[in-house]
Amino acid sequence: MKSLIKGSRRLPLASLILVALAGPTTTSSVASAATSALDTSGAWPTAPGATVRFYTNCDDDGLGSLRQAISASASGDSVRASPTLSCSTITLQTPLIFGQQDLDIRGNGKGRPTITAAATVTDGLIRHLGAGQLNLQFLSLEGGRKYKDDGQAKGGCVYGAGNVGLNVTSVSGCTAKGVGFQQGIGGGVFSQGLTSLRLSEVSGNVATSSGGAYASGGGMYAVGGVTLDRSVIAGNATDTTGNSWGGGFTTPGGAQIVNSALINNSARVSGGAHIHPPSATPISIINTTISGNSATRVGGLTCVGTTTILSSTISNNTSQDGSSGGRIIGGGLDLGAGNHVIASTIITGNYAGGEGFATSINLSSSTGATLAGDHDHISGSTLALPNGTITTASQLLPLALNGSSRPTHALSPTDLDVDAGVAPVGQTYDQRGFPFLRSVGPGTDIGAYEYDPDYIFRDGFDTAFGGPPG
Predict the structure, then answer these.
(1) Which end of the chain is more exposed for a tag (fewer CB within 10 A), N or C?
(2) Does the structure show a pLDDT above 60 at 321?
(3) What is the mean predicted confidence (pLDDT) over 435-442?
């Protein structure tokens, strides 16, 4: 996995396993069977009676290869790295294309092997044509390219005709490029169904069009919705001279984001994510940081569905324009029509248009939106804010890991957000997970980070996230 941290010690994705005790998460109508109970290895289990097939080398094809094991598998089987696998990289000469309804593919539990492609491969890495569930676990996928000149280019590294689940897996440096006037969709991952991430990272991927057609979902595009659990979406982009949406991800379905981070993604519209389901579809964001994302319009998130945001931090996102179509646009969050709830959340320090950070609109909405909630810190809003909302400048510290593998903005000891929030039901820890408690001292803090004056970080890391690799 490519590090997104410049000039500092890299924390590998495998270290995410150490924070697996990050506390209970909530469920929603977009939850997948892939997020069911884990087996003793920390993997999503296969169905009872499924055949387990091992690959024993890193050859592209032939006896003992990953390709051969997939070819020999039936729907529902599990294809796994041998416990004695000593190689680290599988370089594909052609994509892995298979049609089983459901399939589970695993590495060896250490983020290995890395699956990548030879420079001549321009049809992606993994293409699952079955309409069921594809689970990718304990793997690194890198450098896949999906180029297409006769239709949409979908999924630079992963294409799923059904649901796709990533568990302790990274997808990085992949490209979906529409050649000529074709569209690029899902630079890292495309799924026709639901895409679920657990303890995973999607970073440095690009959706683009060489002829200026639209691009959407730099990191991921999921038709059926997105769930993120303790995961990072960082440094992805939609890069085209035409319109583009959702630098981090795009979905026309629902979304559930818990204990995660959307960092330094970019697009023309909705730098962090573009979530636009039917208006009654729920969107839930809990204990999450959205920061450093940028766009021409709405640097952070666009959420069209009925949105609930709890104990999260939306800050330091940048929108070049402050208005569109006669409507004022916020730099951090733009909500669609409907009834929304925001509680114990920071939405401040975002930049929109020609205004400075202190006076920018951070939160905007379409006509017909209403907002309920409490214990918030929101400055610069076009929506009427709940009584008691803090609207003064924030004292957030620069983005850093702060003892975790998912970055947060720490609070200053004199910040008004300290002890001024409320904990979501069932949340024991803040965004960083164990051992960082959700409530310390006389009260709970507003935002994704809980200030604890007695905790000392000893890992020597205290630097901001950089941009996309290269």
Answers:
(1) C
(2) yes
(3) 94
Residue 372 tokens, joined: 């309920």
Phi and psi, residue 69, nearest 5°: -65, -40
Chain-wide mean pLDDT for the chain?
88
Give the tokens for residue 437: 């408690």
How sure is the predictor about 126, in pLDDT bands with cuts at 50, 70 and 90?
very high
Adjacent-strand bridge partners of 176: 146, 207
Helices (H), 273-412: none
Q: What amino acid is encoded at 54 in this protein? A: F
CATH of 15-35+50-444, one of 2.60.40, 2.160.20, 2.40.50, 2.60.120: 2.160.20
Average pLDDT in the 118-144 region?
A: 97
Q: What confidence score (pLDDT) does residue 155 get?
A: 98
Distance CA 61, CA 97 (A): 13
Q: Is 380 exposed, middle or buried (0-12, 13-18, 19+ CB in 10 A)?
A: buried
Question: Which range among 5-19, 203-217, 370-384 shows the weakest confidence by mean pLDDT?
Answer: 5-19
Cβ pair 119, 149 in contact under 8 A: no
Whole-angstrom Cα distance, residue 279 to residue 469?
36
User: Is the predicted pLDDT of residue 23 greater than 60, yes or no?
Assistant: no
In the chain, the amino acid numbered 267 is A
CA distances from 99 to 105, 129, 131, 375 (A): 14, 5, 8, 50
